[in-house]
Design a protein that fits this description.
Blueprint: H1 2-29, E1 37-41, E2 44-50, E3 58-63, E4 66-72, E5 79-82, H2 83-89, E6 96-101, E7 104-118, E8 121-131, E9 137-139, H3 141-144, E10 148-152, E11 155-161
Parallel strand pairs: 4-9, 5-8
Antiparallel strand pairs: 1-2, 2-11, 3-4, 3-7, 6-7, 7-8, 10-11
Length: 162
Amino acid sequence: MGKGMIVIAMILALGLLTYIFQGTLNRQYNPNQTVQTRQITDQHIEIVLKRNRAGHYVTSGKINGHNAVFLLDTGATYVAIPERLARQIGLNKGRRLALSTANGRTIGYQTNIDELDIGRIQLNNIKAIITPNLDEVLLGMSVLKQLEFTQRGNELTVRQYL
């Protein structure tokens, strides 16, 4: 009985440590899990994103009301969505396309996002690509061209003009 309780306690402690450590890793990857939005005037809304340890801007948001994590990518023409996430949120695959990416050539499918949110910044009718071999949502120029952004130090200020 005593050895069994020790084993159970060790398993619980290991599980708790794993949970805590994973949370720390997630916050390091996405330091913008809670996006603070400021309405500066009646004319624009802004958010300030912190750079992660790898030097990228990653933030939480929503696609058609479903939670998503975005990596801002000025080199991507469209929003690129992993196929598994597109399936979960019910995005339809459109026309098949040959894509040339930083990881080489692949196949993708056109789709459309009805609503994309980052904090209180809301964009509608966004062109996107469903990509089978992608692990994260790349927030490409189909979104970024509608916003203004300024980088200073380790922060990126993103503005939407109303």
